[in-house]
Each structure stands twice: as C-alpha cells, then as structure tokens.
Amino acid sequence: MATIEFITKEDLDKFKQELFSELRRPGQKLHKNSEQKEWLKSYEVRKLLSISPGTLQSLRDSGTLKFSKVGGLMFYKYDDVAALIDGKKNK
Description:
With 91 residues, the chain is an alpha+beta fold. It has helices at residues 9-23, 42-49, 53-62, 78-90; strands at residues 39-41, 68-70, 73-77.
C-alpha cells in the first residue's frame, strides 16, 4: 500500500530557498546563517529594524533601502537590510 505525503506551501518555500542556495555561483557572498532567507517581506524588515510601516515607506522613498515589487508585495534583500543595520550601529 502506498504512503500518501502532503506537501505544504511552507515545505515548498523551504525547498525553493535550499535550491537557490545550492545554485548560487561560486565565490558569491554567503550569509553567516545558511538558513537566512535572501529576500524579506515588509513585515520581516519592520520587525528586524523595529520600525513602523510609515518609516519603512520613508526609507523606500528616500532610496535608503532598495526594494523590488512583485505584484502587490515589496521584497528587500537581506544583505541591504543588514547593511542598513550595520550603518546605524556605526553611527
């Protein structure tokens, strides 16, 4: 008798992240934490930076934080957010 396994959206997202990690070109900078996602959603960035939606909008408008828009969602590179955090710590 065959075993039925269900795959959730979270399973697919994790697989996608692992696949992209494997396909990265040699020599490309890797994150300290291999489980860290390369792209973050707005709510994740707000949580990391402890800022409001309005402040995040201001960072986008001023060009301080780069973003990509896919459909109606904004995505931010983890490295860009980390650089912004490091810049704030150095000031």
